[in-house]
């Protein structure tokens, strides 16, 4: 085995001082996302070269100091691999009106922002601070595509903040990203039912956002009632 390579435990010790939240699970998660590719010894154990460790250091550094989502980090790594310079950090240009950490948005919001409430556009740093999530937990939620920036931007909206706060609170009950992924799958099936209902009544072309929101709200009320019934029984 080349002497320059290290085991995952040795890599953890190297990075732990600067990144105290790093864990073996986080390193494996980053590998699963394709951001690092350590060699495998004949025994099957991972072996990390100096290049792998440098790459890990870069990923953890931009997550900690620039609060970049995994999608942007992947793009930056691809630029580095191509010999290019990745873009610098993007300064926020949209004023932020944060929601208090202990306050969840309304349980039955329509697709548009609730009346009287401004749309939320927060950076990754703001999202971590407001929700109280750890960097590792947010990275895991992003990996499962549970919390994502608004399409085409680096800013997170109200739904992302809601999920982040809920994830932090659910963690106290032993529920993690795997459980939230199951909830997401249920939500996706319900969204498909809503779409079918609109199409069945020939309202797809003329339906307003308000009418779509009405169907969604009714489904959510029914879902909540059925969930309460199931728990009572």
UniProtKB/TrEMBL annotation:
GO molecular function: DNA binding; DNA-binding transcription factor activity
Keyword DNA-binding attached: yes
SUPFAM superfamilies on file: Putative DNA-binding domain
HTH merR-type domain residues: 21-79
Alphabetized Pfam families for the sequence: MerR_1
Record keywords, A-Z: DNA-binding
Signal peptide feature range: none
Record's protein name: MerR family transcriptional regulator
């Amino acid at each position: 085995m080349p002497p320059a390579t290290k085991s995952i435990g040795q890599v953890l010790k190297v990075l732990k001082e600067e990144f105290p939240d790093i864990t073996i699970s986080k390193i494996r998660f980053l590998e699963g996302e394709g951001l690092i590719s350590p060699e495998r010894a004949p025994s099957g154990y991972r072996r990390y070269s100096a290049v792998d460790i440098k790459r890990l250091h870069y990923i953890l550094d931009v997550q900690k100091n620039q609060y970049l989502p995994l999608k942007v980090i992947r793009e930056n790594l691809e630029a580095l691999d191509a010999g290019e310079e990745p873009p610098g950090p993007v300064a926020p240009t949209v004023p932020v009106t944060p929601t208090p950490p202990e306050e969840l948005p309304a349980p039955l919001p329509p697709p548009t922002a609730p009346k009287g409430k401004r749309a939320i556009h927060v950076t990754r740093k703001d999202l971590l601070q407001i929700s109280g999530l750890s960097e590792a937990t947010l990275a895991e939620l992003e990996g499962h595509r549970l919390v994502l920036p608004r399409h085409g931007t680096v800013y997170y909206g109200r739904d992302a903040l809601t999920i982040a706060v809920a994830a932090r609170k659910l963690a106290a009950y032993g529920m993690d990203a795997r459980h939230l992924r199951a909830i997401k799958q249920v939500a996706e099936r319900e969204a498909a039912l809503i779409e079918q209902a609109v199409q069945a009544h020939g309202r797809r072309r003329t339906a307003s956002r308000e009418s779509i929101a009405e169907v969604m709200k009714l489904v959510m009320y029914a879902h909540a009632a059925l969930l309460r019934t199931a728990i009572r029984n």
